[in-house]
Design brief:
- It is a single chain.
- About 40% of the residues lie in helices and about 20% in strands.
- The protein has helices spanning about 5-25, 30-40, 45-55, 75-80, 85-95, 110-120, 135-140, 165-170, 195-205, 215-220, 245-255; strands at about 30, 60, 65-70, 105-110, 125-130, 145-150, 150-155, 160, 175-180, 185, 190, 210-215, 230, 235-240, 260-265.
- α6 packs parallel to α7 (about 135-140) and α8 (about 165-170) runs parallel beside α9 (about 195-205).
- Pfam families: DeoRC, HTH_DeoR.
Length: about 270
Amino acid sequence: MSTTPKQPRTATAARRRHIVDHLRSLGHSESIGDLSQLFGVSTSTIRRDVDALSDESKIWKISGGDVMIRRHEPTWHEKEQCEHVSKAAMATYAAKHLVNESDLVLLDSGTSTAALGRLLSTRNDITILVGGLSVLQAVAEGTANVMVLGGALRQHSGSLLGPWASSNLRSITPDVAFIGCDAVSATDGLNCPLLESVEFKHEAMTRARTSWILADPTKILTTGSEPYWASIPPRTGIVTVQSSNSELSEKLGAFRRSGHHVIQAPLQPADTD
């Protein structure tokens, strides 16, 4: 009787131990791509490793696709270091094509929405409704009219949540809302760390006349590690970036089949300063 070789399983376990050791010695986050090059395996293999290690609470998948040792929940400052080019591309497209004169624009908490906020902050023909600390800092010194929803500040994510925020949101109809996310799925929705986040994001997408989720490819390709999911109304669109990744194309196809409009913004050259 032949036996199943155990070497692949042993090699996988060893690689995952080395990933944890590497991240612990590194002291900061590392990208999926860098881990793929370091260990000489495909990005899809590394993603499976990362998903398994995250499920075991050994590492933390940071919004944007990076990973780090799970010592604490990553702050929005740490998340801000990821996917600069994609965030800039999505923000540039949204500011130019998805926001009209006199709009009341709701910006959910997040670093992608903050990137959009920086571009919109110089417009004095719109009103920006702020749902998070990172966005507030991005628009504070601009010329746009700014309103803050209020609520309880969750320091790590910079979100403004709770009954006050939800109650204020229910009394407003934004012309357009831009929603941030840690991960997004055509079947499950938006992955959220708190039930309060689920309530806020769903309310924002429902209340707004038009709503868009800003999701760089890592948010679409990753498996959500948080316990809660916010359903996405069919009329809510997805803004991501252009990519030749076949797995991304398949996942975007699932969004389209579910009735969501998908926009892939052109990538901008990286800042070399």
